[in-house]
Amino acid sequence: MRLLFIVLLLATILTQYPLWLGKGGWLRVHELEHKVAAQKETNAALLARNNAMQAEVQDLKSGTAAIEERARAELGMIKDGEIYVQILSPHEEQPHVKTPKIPDRVGN
After folding, report:
1. How many Cα atoms occupy the beta-carbon half-sphere of 5 within 13 Å?
2. How far apart are CA 86 and CA 84, in angstroms?
3. Alpha-carbon distance 67 to 55, whole Å?
4. In a domain? residue 84
5. For 45-84, how does the pLDDT look when each residue is reduced to its tens digit (9 = 90+)?
6. Contact, 60 vs 67, CB < 8 A?
7. Which structural domain, as residue segments, surrounds residue 32?
8. Rounded to 10 degrees, what is the CA torsion of 65, 58, 75, 84?
């Protein structure tokens, strides 16, 4: 009777091992489900980025307004006759400009 119990226990362990720890076991399936979910999130973010880039490409191909906007924002270009004005926030630190020293007397 004791031998039969040990044989059945070993048979149960041998059949359960692949189910839990084997190549296609529950732990591996759980791990792969997490990887798939993470990859789906990454794909969704990349799809949104691609759609935004495609819309920008279409906008650049269709008219000059988008090109002009990018030239102003990225290259700092202005049109003829325009005056560039930059308004700094009072909370931002002012850039320190070194002023040249002017001698008091001529000849120094």
Report:
1. 2
2. 7
3. 13
4. no
5. 999 999 999 998 888 788 788 788 888 888 878 888 888 7
6. yes
7. 2-75
8. 20
- The torsion angles phi and psi of 24, rounded to 5 degrees, stand at -110, 30
Looking at per-residue pLDDT, the higher value among 86 and 33 belongs to 33
pLDDT recorded at residue 47: 97
Q: Answer yes or no: are the C-beta atoms of 72 and 78 closer than 8 Å.
A: yes
Q: Using 50, 70 and 90 to split pLDDT, how confident is the model at 107?
A: low
Q: Specify the number of domains making up the chain.
A: 1
The DSSP secondary structure of 69-90, one letter per residue, reads: HHHHHHH----TT--------T
**Residue 101, in any domain of the structure:** no
Residue with tokens 């048979």: 11
* Residue 38 covered by a domain: yes
Instruction: Give the C-alpha distances (Å, rounded to integers) separating 26 from 30, 32, 67, 77.
Output: 6, 10, 54, 61
**d(C-alpha 106, C-alpha 50), whole Å:** 65
Q: Is 56 among the domain residues?
A: yes
